[in-house]
Amino acid sequence: MEEFYNDLTLKIQQAVKKVMSKILQKTGDETIYAAALVTDSDCTTLFLAVNTYEYLEKRDLEYLQLMDFHLSEEEQRQLNEGTASLTKWLPDEWGYADSDDDDGSELFNEISRLLYEHDEEEDFDDDAYEENQELFFAAVTSAFQKLKEEKAFGERTEEILCFISISDDDRAEEIENESARQLNSPQLYEPFFNRCIL
């Protein structure tokens, strides 16, 4: 099983590099502040999401207008100061993802197919299921660390907060916080850990 995840680490690195080269072209002068690798509760899918401050501002404004939010005075103050956001830490709401790039999307689709097949092939009991999940998160974290070392997210890579996110799962906040702690400097991690989502 470990060989599968060693190979997965390399495949993730290749996919992210391919996607990021296109995303960096698309973002142009925009400032990327975060990148997330997002999975599901069974760890059988994976995609990359990236956001910029410029897209964040536009998206939050759209939310305020379309969703008819009624913010308290304190929430409005936090939103204005940038200490709270409607979408800042929600990868599903971000502006750039692997689906925007055909080649990169293919690579992530292949990764998801392999993860799904691996899950189907193995007859996991509770202990093996937990071990499999641990190996998955270790592989994704390792890939992220290598990508950061290689500045795959651009010249400002060290200023971009990276984390792993998981959709529709009670463990989401715990996984996001722990991965962010492992992957980022304390200066980047602490505001993320203390984040406020309205």
Summarize the structure.
By secondary structure, the protein is α+β, with helices and mostly antiparallel strands. The protein has helices at 2-27, 53-66, 73-81, 102-121, 126-149, 172-183, 186-193, and strands at residues 32-39, 46-52, 96-97, 161-166.
Characterization of this structure:
With 198 residues, the protein is an alpha+beta fold. 57% of the residues lie in helices and 12% in strands. The protein has 7 helices and 4 strands, in the order αββααβααβαα. The chain has helices at residues 2-27, 53-66, 73-81, 102-121, 126-149, 172-183, 186-193; strands at 32-39, 46-52, 96-97, 161-166. The radius of gyration is 17 Å and the shape is globular.
Descriptive terms for the model:
198 residues, alpha+beta, 4-stranded mixed sheet, 4 strands, 57% helix, globular
Write the layout of secondary structure elements.
Elements: H1 2-27, E1 32-39, E2 46-52, H2 53-66, H3 73-81, E3 96-97, H4 102-121, H5 126-149, E4 161-166, H6 172-183, H7 186-193
Helix pairs in contact: 1-4, 1-5, 6-7
**Rg measurement, Å:** 17 Å
**Alpha plus pi helix count:** 7
Give average pLDDT, whole number: 87
Q: Which percent range fits the helix content?
A: 55-70%
Q: What's the end-to-end separation, in Å? A: 41 Å
Question: What is the 3D shape?
Answer: globular
Describe the sheet with the most strands. Answer: 4 strands, mixed
